[in-house]
Amino acid sequence: MIDTSRLPLTRDLVLIGGGHTHALVLRKWGMSPLPGARLTVINPGPTAPYSGMLPGFVAGHYGREELDIDLVRLARFAGARVVLGAAEHIDTAAQTVHVPGRPPIAYDVASVDIGITSAMPELPGFAEHGIPAKPLGQFAETWAAFREGDSPAHVAVIGGGVAGAELVLAMAYALRSRGRLAQATLIDSGAAFRAIGTKARQTLRRALVEQGVRLEENATIERIKKGYILLADGREILSDFTTGAAGARPYGWLADSGLDVQDGFIRVSETLQSSAANVFAAGDCAHMEFAPRPKAGVYAVRQAPVLCHNLRALMTGDPLRRYKPQKDYLKLISMGSKEALGERFGATLSGPLMWSWKDRIDQAFMEKFRDLPAMEPPDLPAEHTLDMEQALGAKPMCGGCGAKVGRDALLGTLAGLATTDRSDITPLPGDDAALLTTGGARQVISTDHLRSFTNDPVLMSRIAAIHALGDIWAMGAKPQAATASLILPRMSSDLQARTLAEIMGAASEVMQQAGAAIVGGHTSLGDELTIGFTVTGLCPRPPVTLAGAKPGDALILTKPIGSGVLMAAEMTGDARGEWIASALDLMSQPQGTASGLLQNAHAMTDVTGFGLLGHLLGICEASGAGAQLCTGRIPLMPGAAELADRGIRSSLFAANQAALAELNTSGWQELLFDPQTAGGLLAAVSAETADDLLGQLRSAGYPAARIGKMTATQGAITLSSQ
Prior knowledge:
By secondary structure, this protein is an alpha/beta fold. The chain has 20 helices and 36 strands. The chain has a six-stranded mixed sheet.
């Protein structure tokens, strides 16, 4: 039987946007991926809010986390790479998608599902004083903060459709429940609720009265002001929170895409293809010219099976399917409290039972993304060598520094190597880099490589470059030159070229910003992506080494710890996407400026595979000193403590812990042994200068902390809570 995970990659499929249709496609893809296809999803953030539960969140019936589809976790399940950024252009001629801050993303097949916006740029003052209801994420965050205030509040919703009614009723209910509602107003330029039947309109109007909502129909808005809305007839409507739900508006860049559009929405055929046959569109950003329908989530959900089939079919040569939208659908409208209005074909029901029905439907939809089926690893062959199960372990091997060899094994091997008698090489006990002297110039050289832990070559390349530069920065050197060593997964020549361009473009940017140049490298094909760099740096002054820390020195750490646990949890679907996004941002932060600020440190190292305690032990051993860590001051990456308390560990944890087995740690404190990738600098500095240095580091954007001090007890590390 062929192992499909080892088949070459030959086609790029790019999903632009994390809308409901694409979320369902990702789930279906995870259940049955297409061999040979590399899947990418582009979205502004790590989550995609579900619009159906927004009114319930606004009213306070749901928590913020219940509103979100975790796209990072979903993409891991689907085997897709995630690009966190907002697409701003699609070039159908070059077949590339443009996202700010990174090289263009090439595609063979693409799909657009970016939703809509309710921004009103033509309404004077709205951009400055209004909050569009879409995109939902920004609105939800702003409303959550406003809702928790304590003063009487005036709110207003512009747009008298069903969405506007749901919003204003939810806002009024939430504020009334907290004793804060002064006035809620719904404003429409015409007659409200034209899209529903007479009986449903009557029910909705009655709900507005019961919740104390003022309805302004046939009203023209002159301008949005701070604290009020000015109508054309001169009246003023007080509003501390003004939002807009007046119809669906497409994102402006779609009109410049070269695709055929209708009022800015991408025209699609029955197969959901646009005017470019290899570009599809779905959800609210698409216009079904073959069967025009109002913008509604039910169509997006039912497009998913057809879209998923057709995306695959275009890459396999199979026939495409046609999407046939229903003529009408059940409209379930929230009414503030836990009551809802249901209407279909003119029939209307309302009350708590309809809310329960709506809640059940919404929860069932979200449960598809909360409870992703576990994909079991293949069984071992019936006949295999002894200890195979122990060697494999109970979980996948980590990437990054979590995949490295343990401290004792590495140092034991290095200790057995013959020493050099070359006069131009200066031994540095315990340091990862070597010090060379050439023509009177001091030069340090180091090498490092990482097994990939993200499917995004650009992000992986940035982190690997920053990680490799860590030893140079830790010695106070100025990066000079680098060579790359790359292993790409098996792929077609076209995908090789695309991937190499992304990797080298990102790496070159990091190296150039650090002051170094990439001067060459080597590539090969293998089972998985591995990126490494050999880097040199020049020392205008004696290098900072591990040996030099003094008792009483303060210990400063420039980055939080926890990346090993977070990456291990991400591999198994146990980490929240926002935690992973934050960790990747921290790993992508260069340490060049921090190195310059810490150039007078007595000793310094970068915190990587051996974990914080392992690298601190290296300073203690080389300096003939001890250390005391204040565990309560050690900064942790978001989510790391929660995951550690749940027992999640990186592959290298046990080997790191064995180096200091005498320390009694448990729960989150075991993060002290967590292997870090592209971690921060750990510096021993004069206690008199520590606070000033800490202030400078924080002003430069580093989440630095003073975490302890050096002591006189040689090789001993103790822990205290303060």
